[in-house]
Amino acid sequence: MKISLRALNHMTSLTPNQRRVFDVLLQADASLGAYAILKKTGFRGATQVYRALEKLVDLGLARKLESLNAYIAVSAKGQSSPTAFAICDQCGHIHEVVEASEIKQLHECLAQLNFQVERTVIEFHGVCSICSGHSHEDKATPSYPRLKQD
Ligand SMILES: [Zn+2]
Questions:
Q1: CA of 91 to the centre of ligand 1 (A)
Q2: Domain locations in the chain as residue ranges
Q3: How many CB atoms lie within 10 A of CB 112?
């Protein structure tokens, strides 16, 4: 995953615990629940994990997937724009939909109603192109960009 300059700036201000949790999220192929993160970090208690996650979400470096009660590192693009997530219920793959004009339009509508959006949660559940067999490519090269570090 590409790391934005903004993320880099934030990373320098992260505590070692926050940094460790962020690294675990970056290395994960899928979203992770707090206890999976706890296992991977080797922290003694879940409180440390939750505190670190709270900060990472505050900074926009990570997002909570409400429907899965799990966390995911956000791409450089996703950090600065409202994002929707398409979650495959079969393989667990999560596709980050950034810069969707529909989400921006929705935000503009709400702004006209003087509604201040503080948090946007848009999650779609379904079956990805690979699992549904609609992909003409092999598993290593999916037809859409995978949320993955490279
Ligand atoms: Zn799938």
A1: 4
A2: 5-73
A3: 8
Query: Ligand 1 center to residue 27 CA distance, Å?
Result: 19
Percent of the chain with pLDDT over 90: 53
Model pLDDT, residue 14: 92
For range 83-105, the mean pLDDT: 87
- What pLDDT is stored for residue 149 in this prediction? 46
CA 65–ligand 1 middle distance (angstroms)? 17
d(CA 62, CA 33): 12
CATH ID of 5-73, from 1.10.238.10, 1.10.10.10, 3.40.50.170, 3.30.310.10: 1.10.10.10
Residue 112: pLDDT above 60? yes
Residues pairing with 65 in the sheet: 70
